[in-house]
Specification:
Layout: E1 2-7, E2 13-19, E3 24-28, H1 39-45, E4 50-54, H2 71-85, E5 90-95, H3 97-109, E6 114-120, H4 136-139, H5 143-155, H6 157-168, H7 174-185, H8 189-201, H9 205-209, E7 215-220, H10 228-237, E8 241-246, H11 252-255, H12 257-272
Parallel strand pairs: 3-4, 3-5, 5-6, 6-7, 7-8
Antiparallel strand pairs: 1-2, 2-4
Helix pairs in contact: 1-12, 2-3, 5-6, 5-8, 6-7
């Protein structure tokens, strides 16, 4: 495994890891997490593929000055890393907020480097309103709730991260739940505040409808975040989409790693034939 830091033009030092060889699977984690979210995918799929993970700016070990923490900068970091590693024909996978980063990447850079796309427990628009009901909390997350969360992140991030994680993984055992809470709380609240502002204001529906590469959409059967109908709707909105639900909730890749990685591998085999 190769790990290290890539120096970005604005001074950001992007932590990343590369393990294995073969077709590149580039993995983007979610809000408050880091590259360790993909540790089981990295362990299993690096036996056959090159698995690339990173800590997004504002998260984990990536060093940043607190400026330019939005999806656009994150997407440009992904492109800088792909350029640095000389990668093309990749499978790009975004989980939760990572899906938004993947969609922002496509909005800016197109699909030239992509062979396929995987969206895990995500949505092109988090906030639900009159014409959209496939956002967070199975269609119940309103703009008022989003603003309240933004305020709590700013004023009491420790409490927010604890309650947010418990809603995200209500069936996970306490020890593992505590590890994930600790990971989220390891990030600076002011950084998370800026990131959440981008999360609740973004709308990638137009970008998603233009996706041409094969796209796999994955949901957890018991997800408290995104419904089966939401995932199905996303898959139907792209030109070559496929929707699968697996055991587990929003953290299905951790809760059901064997099934998750088997589904990912099957999709990659199908799209590489």
């Amino acid at each position: 495994m190769i790990s290290g830091y890539l120096n970005i033009e604005d001074g950001t030092e992007l932590y990343h890891r590369v393990k294995g060889s073969g077709h590149p699977l580039v993995c983007i984690h979610g809000f408050g997490a880091d590259s360790s979210a993909y540790r089981l995918t990295e362990k299993i799929l690096s036996r056959k593929y090159m698995v690339v993970t990173m800590d997004l700016r504002g998260h984990g070990r990536t060093v940043v000055d607190g400026k330019n923490l939005g999806f656009e900068s994150m997407a440009r970091d992904v492109e800088a890393l792909l350029e640095h590693l000389g990668l093309s024909e990749i499978t790009l996978m975004g989980w939760s907020m990572g899906g938004a980063v993947a969609m922002e990447y496509i909005r800016i850079f197109g699909e030239g480097r992509l062979r396929s796309l995987i969206l895990v427990e995500t949505s092109p628009k988090v906030v639900n309103d009159g014409d959209w009901s496939h956002g967070l909390f199975n269609g119940k997350y309103t703009l008022e709730m989003a603003k309240a969360d933004l305020s709590q992140i700013k004023n009491d991030f420790m409490e927010f991260s604890s309650s947010f994680m418990k809603m995200m993984a209500p069936h996970m055992d306490k020890d593992n739940q505590d590890i994930l809470i600790k990971t989220m709380q390891g990030n600076r609240p002011e950084f998370m505040y800026e990131v959440w502002k981008d999360i609740i204001s973004s709308d990638f529906r137009d970008t998603l409808s233009g996706v041409k590469v094969p796209c796999l959409v994955l949901n957890g059967e018991d997800s408290t975040f995104y419904s089966y109908e939401s995932g199905k709707s996303i898959a139907e909105s792209v030109r070559n989409g496929k929707h699968i639900a697996i055991k587990g909730g929003h953290l299905a890749p951790i809760e059901s790693p064997v099934e998750f990685n088997r589904v990912i591998e099957r999709f990659m085999i199908e799209e590489n034939e």
